[in-house]
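Table 4 source record.
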Amino acid sequence: MKVVFQGNHTADVSAIQSVSVDQRSGRIEICVKHKKEKTGKQKVSYLIYPGSRYTRRLLPKLAETIKEELVSLSRAPDMPIEQVVELTAWRRGHLQVRMDTDSRASTQGLVYLCWHWSLGRKPKDEELELRTGLSADEIEKIASPDIYKQSIKDLMLESYDTPDKFKWWLRDWGQNMPARLSKHMRISENTAAELINSVAEQYNIDLGDLKSSLTSFESERTIGSGRNSVYLYYYQWDRDSAESKGQSVWECKIGKAERPLQKRLREQATDPENFKLGLHIQTDNSVEIEGRIHDELKEREKHLCESLRTEWFLTSPSEVEEIYKFIGENSHESALDG
């Protein structure tokens, strides 16, 4: 087992001297002592866990998890590969192990690694080779047998251990689930569909009914024209609660989409049955129109600023349509003037 740090160098896990977390930059620094190839003398290098908006958002929890794992490994560097492949540090690229094509640990490890990869993307051969020590042909060999497929199914059941969780997973990935899962896990679309059907049967889920719920969210009102969208959605229980008190406004989310709107809505809908697309504004000027609507509602003190959901307002579809009709043409003209 080895720790990978900058460049092509490697160092034994037992050579780890310290692990620290820099929360401001969103990175992990690992101090490693190793020998220079020419002189044989010891020197200190650092493995940098690259910062990004995503990693910074997950710090300190993710960073502390990796730190604890690496510190633990430095004290007990002979941990079996079966345990290593379950570590966040390995999946995130801090550890390199030498696997073989005939072990269950290698199969399980490849499944873990692909499963935790970026959603819908196929891990590159060179990255898998770096983490596993296996060539592209060897990885292909591992990904073919039935034991690999069974490992995927086991992980699906482990990750989504109730029918409702599995349904949400399918909803999150949308109608092209088999295609995305096949790419993600390095299997054929037929195999991916077979696995999805198998888990659905085990949970007594009717995929036909589920697919019908994935078709689209029908807008209560659509106005304007253009390739992009500004949208308002709410949940029925909020409207019902407001109207029962004689109120004409309730919590509504106002956002923009510069890609297919339905895909964006499916990502955000936490309860599709109560999710309502109250207003869809079609436009080529979504950034400015959304901003102008937000600003006007803030002027009216409708912004739910105490909420972590920054684009939520105490309003209604009719009020937002009225604001759009007032500022819409002005927004278009200012955009053209600019």
